[in-house]
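Repro:
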Amino acid sequence: MLGYVQALNAIDEAMRMAIPSLERLADVLGLARSRRISRSGDIGTYSYTVHGAGCRFVSGNGAEVDVDFAADGSEVFDLWRLRWYGLSLPEPVDVTDEDLRSAVRSLQPLLAEVRPGWFSVAR
């Protein structure tokens, strides 16, 4: 769980360094929609693919961080995205949904449930 949050923070930092005009990670959607950046590509050690309401980032070691963006630009994710991150690690971690729910609850107030089953990092 914390690995996902740390990876998301590292991606945010890498994207901001590569695209100085980026104020928040969610701005990637607008840049792709306006064709100022491609809908998929490589930035630093990450590849990215913009989709619907979010973006999937893959690090050099294959770890995948898929995140959606709320209307206010905050990063939101669900248990499926957390589970997929764990399975994509170089040494995969497979946990049950119940274990993920328990982990999310244990990390409050760091993580906030923004709508049923969807979470965001409190900032």
